[in-house]
Amino acid sequence: MASAERISRRRFLELAGSAVVGLAVGAAAGYAAAPPKEKIVYKPPPPKAIPTEPLRFGIVTFLTGIPSIAGVAGLRAAEIWIEKVNAQGGILGRKIEYYVEDETGTVESRVEKFKKLTIDKKCDVIFGTESTSTGLAYGPLAEELQQLWLSWDGTTQKGLEETLPKPTYAFRSIYNEAEAVAGAIMVAKYFPEVRTVAGINDDYSYGRNCWEAFMTVLKHYIPDVEPVIDLWPKLGETDFTSHIAAIKAAKPDLVFSSFWHGGAATFLKQAAAVGLFKETKGCLCTAGGVLPALKKEFVPEGIIIGCNSFYFKWTDTWPMLTEFVNEYIKRYGEYPVYEADHAWFTLQAYKAAVEKAYAVKGEWPEKEEIAEALRGIIVPSLSGFRGYREDNYMICDFFQGITKHDPNYDFVLLDPVERISYSQMCHPPDVTFHEWVKSWKAPGEE
């Protein structure tokens, strides 16, 4: 359909509203002259036929390397969702085909994969990505190619403020630093005596932004807290012994890390070998991304672990969660992690947006109309209700808690586990992160 023929949701509602008002005014005037002889009923045009060809989904995620624990969980969840929806008849009767690309490789190779899915495979929408560098490349590319892209992860505040302030087709994940903000809130609540902190984070934008966000928020709650050492291993490094020795020498009250991949388990195993967490407290704000790999034999009780938007035991009263976890374990023999929830949500949101736009328009919607329907949408996901803001950013809560050993599991659980609300972690769209934190009231203020 040519763009001049499209009718946006808002324009549709304006036109429909005007028609109703006009009918009402005219009817009132006519009745004053004489009783109406016939009843005027507005009948919308019948809906047009829905295309019969399948929908094409593209998925880009890590299938190899240390980030693949998260990436594979996201792909598995997407496959379960697609299988379930196809069994129900698809989206408005259209079955779904999907094409998968491995996010591993250079940024240039990832760009080519996005173009391949868009141009060669003619995908209607692309889902996925975990890496910040991928996200920074895909945002402008989605706008250039006019391709809907619903990211699972990889959204740093600084990068987006600089590269993609007002997207149309790109729908971003929640700010990556949200888990660091949540971690600081947890430390202030459970470890208020902390005064010195050591940081060990991956040496790229996500790790550095998390460290900055964590210390900024923690200083709000504990003004005299100070960093004593900050360490920056390269992403993918597996030998942390020298870093751990440096941390022990610094004798911090707390160790903070934003490791979100297989390195989190490796770090904790090497830290246990020298008794690091017998001497200091810990906050690993994203290590729950590999929760099943955090075995009790090397992860102690009593440290803070963050699980991003998804903790498989957050409740036993949400049927969607229970059904999914049971199916996931049945198929793969292990427990799902947070990328499964991001994948599930983006698919749920896309389906709901298509149905919403179709109900307004009466025919299969264009990508721009689906994007408009996505803004402000709220849908059920594995972690409860989630949505998108009007500026294309995810809305969701995070789960963080204190590690505990349970005889029924070989990995650590969280008890207590807290649900940190979106509004506690993410700044509004009209202010920057630092402006937002500065606006907070000091502890103890009304």
Automatic annotation (TrEMBL):
<feature type="domain" description="Leucine-binding protein">
    <location>
        <begin position="54"/>
        <end position="392"/>
    </location>
</feature>
<keyword id="KW-1133">Transmembrane helix</keyword>
<dbReference type="InterPro" id="IPR028081">
    <property type="entry name" value="Leu-bd"/>
</dbReference>
<dbReference type="InterPro" id="IPR028082">
    <property type="entry name" value="Peripla_BP_I"/>
</dbReference>
<keyword id="KW-0812">Transmembrane</keyword>
<keyword id="KW-0732">Signal</keyword>
<feature type="transmembrane region" description="Helical">
    <location>
        <begin position="12"/>
        <end position="34"/>
    </location>
</feature>
<dbReference type="Pfam" id="PF13458">
    <property type="entry name" value="Peripla_BP_6"/>
</dbReference>
<dbReference type="InterPro" id="IPR006311">
    <property type="entry name" value="TAT_signal"/>
</dbReference>
<keyword id="KW-0472">Membrane</keyword>
<protein>
    <submittedName>
        <fullName>Amino acid ABC transporter substrate-binding protein</fullName>
    </submittedName>
</protein>
<dbReference type="InterPro" id="IPR051010">
    <property type="entry name" value="BCAA_transport"/>
</dbReference>
